[in-house]
Amino acid sequence: MTVLFGQLFTGISIGAVLLLIAIGLALTFGQMNVINMAHGEFIMAGAYTTYVLQQSITGAGLSLVVALPVAFVVAGTMGVLLEVLLIRRLYARPLDTLLVTWGVSLMLQQLARDVFGSPNVQTRAPELLTGNVALPGGLTIANNRLFILALALAAVAALTLALRLTPLGRRIRAVVQNRDLAAVSGIATSRVDRTTFFLGSGLAGLAGVALTLLGPIGPTMGTNLIIDAFLVVVVGGIGQLKGSVIVAFALGVLQATGEYLTTLSVAKVIVFVAIVAFLQWRPQGLFTLRTRSLA
Amino acid sequence: MTAVTPAPPAVRPAPVDAVPPDRPAGRARLRTAAGFAFGAALLFAVAPLMLSDFRLALLAKYLCVAMVAVGIGIAWGRGGMLTLGQGVFFGLGGYAMAMHLKLADAGPGGMPDFMQLYGQLDELPLWWRPFASPWFALPATVLLPMAVAFGLGSLVFRRRVRGAYFAILSQALAAAMVILLIGQQGTTGGTNGLTDIKGFFGYDLDDPVNQRMVYFIIAGTLLALLALTRQLIHSRYGELLVAVRDGEERVRFLGYDPASVKLVAYVVAAGMAGLAGALFVPAVGIISPALIGIVPSIEFVIGVAVGGRATVLGPVLGAVAVAWARTALSERFPGTWTYLQGLLFVVVVAFLPGGLASLWSLARRRDVGAQPARRRWLSLGRRRVERTEVPAA
User: Fold this and answer.
1) Is position A48 within any domain?
2) What InterPro entries does this protein map onto (chain B) (predicted)?
3) What are the chain B neighbours of A93 within 8 Å (beta carbons)?
């Protein structure tokens, strides 16, 4: 029983990291149907922001609190720049956008190497987040994992509320559902795109801050995470957040269980096979917006 | 059809074909034959005479990359399937060949050196055994990648998973493969891969003469693949493939099955990548996860984009040029090369989607004065929505 819950929680915490990365992607992918490979480097930017802030603000707890909004703005600004300079010019060619943003991500990685050096750097975690919570039954849960879970859920909740209740959210949903109709209804779609990109990239920045609690910060930290996050979005279905939420946790638990029963490497293969099998059943992902368009 | 993605802006993708308009068939054939003879002379006579052994070995390596590029040209340039996981097929071919050569080096009943090192294995693992026979290993270098591509492709294309979804899946396949190889260190050599391959069917690979022989085999194979590709592209099937790329739904309504059309291109591309991997091993003497993972897989694509994705020769020239530039620059300025590579992705793909090959045909078209070609490759802005086009997912 203890083992079961332990694995379950490991899976959930893997899922929380995935979720935090994937909701930003789900937002931008759903909005513009483009794959942003540089999303991983926005995560990296968020992580390095935390590192830089900790150089000037010495208190680990305070710097983390300051880092959250700052990383959001830094990564979001990078996202807007990318959208304005390149992505908006390539809307008609989603596959080309993938390659172009990959090029951008290569350059950003090299930039990080030149500025911060190739070796990984480390931040100090606040004391509050270094311990464990002991649960009855001999279970312990690491505080930093709990914090990330809370952060991911808070981000999802905030985003859901923003999409449901605010005028901006209404406009974003309108553009996702039918861009042309939204445009003729008087919505400035390009402005909405830019805002969406700011929010989505900013969420990557938040994910970067969270990841500093789990491990070292390096120029290629984004690349390793981004593919799993893309898979979450693909399997979850685009245009809605609930698919990503469910799939992130499901993949996390599947990964953790697979790892427990076999090995890490076999677990990765199991996850991949499961995804291909799942797409046989629902090729457009778990939840889709139903429209009458072909394809 | 139930399904569906929020409609992307229904805009026709920019045409990337650089094939000039129809010319008389006889002259075209003559030109092709002349070009082929020129290429053969270059590869078989000029390069071996002009280049040192070291440079020739490098060229052999580049030509292997070019073979992968030819396959990507078919799948992506002609078929519209952006495959970011060709490293998997390259690796399958490479590992199949390397396993055979390792076993041949070890002699009958022997085990590869690395297995004693980390594996603590008493005997050869079962799945290694068939590779001792060249009659199994050699066909496997091509058939194994083709089988994997067939398996994945038939599942994925039939359910109409395409576009960016397919690209991500193919990339995830590369990630899974590398993690699997590294994880099973005892039987796959882990991060190091299969190294230190000495012999090639009885020939000593340290001998420069034999290295030359390997080069000639690679050059000959590449020419054969190019001839095959040309035939394929100019066949009815080739036309159908382009039609599927440009309007999958329309082709379906005409009564064809787009899934099978795409599957053939994907499987052919995988076979070419497998062959390239198999020949890469004797040329370079190593195959490792670092050569086949996510990053090298996507690097295969950039050469294709630079040369011209929809042409026969473009991918080859682009791949060789990019590989050469990489060697020349990354030795001296490693950081600069990464920036340049990133810039290459951005500039070529965004601003010159037809690759360098399109410059040639643009120049020609301007001579003829048929239409102002300038706008087509410089115009980046949002194109007008065309109501008739079915949005490609």
Assistant:
1) yes
2) ABC_transp_permease (IPR001851), ABC_transptr_urea_perm_UrtC (IPR017778), LivM-like (IPR043428)
3) 13-14, 353
Residue of A nearest to B304 (CA): A99
Q: Does A102 map to a domain?
A: yes
Write out the residue range of the structural domain in which residue A136 sits.
15-222
| Interatomic CA distance for residues A274 and B189, integer angstroms | 27
Query: Which residue in A89, A272, A291 is closest to B7 by CB distance?
Result: A291
Q: Quick check: is A32 in a domain? A: yes
Rounded Cα distance between B16 and B3, Å, is 29
**Where residue B220 falls among pLDDT bands split at 50, 70, 90?**
very high
**Domain edges within chain B:** 34-333
Q: Which residues pair with A139 in a beta bridge?
A: A135
Which tokens hold the place of B260?
A: 């099978």
Cβ distance B3 to A283 less than 8 Å, yes or no, reads yes
Q: Burial letters for B208-234: b for 16+ Cβ neighbours within 10 Å, e otherwise?
A: eebbeebbeebbebbbebbeebbebbb
Is residue A197 within 8 Å of A87, Cβ to Cβ? yes
**How many domains are contained in chain A?**
1
Cβ within 8 Å, pair A234-B165: yes
pLDDT at B366: 52
C-alpha to C-alpha distance for B101 and B336, rounded to whole angstroms: 37
Give domain status of residue A209, yes or no.
yes
Shortest Cα distance from A120 to chain B (angstroms)?
17
Cβ–Cβ of B168/A35 closer than 8 Å? yes
Using a CB-CB distance cutoff of 8 angstroms, which residues of chain B are in contact with residue A234? 165, 168-169
Euclidean distance between CA atoms B225 and B232, whole angstroms: 10
Statement: residue B371 has pLDDT above 60? no
Q: What is the mean pLDDT of chain B?
A: 83
Question: In chain B, which residue's Cα lies nearest the Cα of A294?
Answer: B390
In A, which residues are within 8 Å of B163 by CB distance? Answer: 94-95
Give the pTM: 0.86
Total beta-carbon pairs less than 8 A apart between chain A and chain B: 193
Q: Say whether B338 and A294 touch across the interface (CB within 8 A).
A: no
A295 CB neighbours in chain B (<8 A) are 1, 4-5, 160, 248-249, 390-393
Cβ pair B9:A288 closer than 8 A: no
Q: How many CB atoms lie within 10 A of CB A212?
A: 26
pLDDT tens over chain A, length 295 residues: 677 777 888 889 889 989 999 999 988 888 888 888 999 999 999 999 999 998 888 777 888 889 999 999 999 999 999 999 998 888 778 888 999 999 999 999 999 999 998 888 888 888 777 777 777 777 778 888 889 999 999 999 999 999 999 999 999 989 888 888 999 999 999 999 999 999 999 999 999 999 998 888 999 888 878 888 988 988 888 767 888 999 999 999 998 888 888 888 888 888 888 888 888 888 888 887 666 555 4
